[in-house]
C-alpha cells in the first residue's frame, strides 16, 4: 500500500469529460481517503478527501 499520495504506484484516473489539454483533475484511491491532484503537476501536492466528501467535491466541480 502506498504511504504517500504522490507515490508512483497509485492508479491515477481522469474523468472521461476531461478536455484534450492538461486542464484536468486526477484522482486515486488512497485508503481510507481519495487523493486528488492537478494533472499538470503530478509530483506536486495532493488533496486528501475522506469518502464522505468525495460526492460533494464532484458536485462542486460540475457546478
TrEMBL record:
Pfam family, one: DUF397
Top-level taxon of origin: Bacteria
Domain DUF397: 10-62
InterPro entries named among the record's database cross-references: DUF397 (IPR007278)
Protein name: DUF397 domain-containing protein
Organism: Streptomyces cylindrosporus
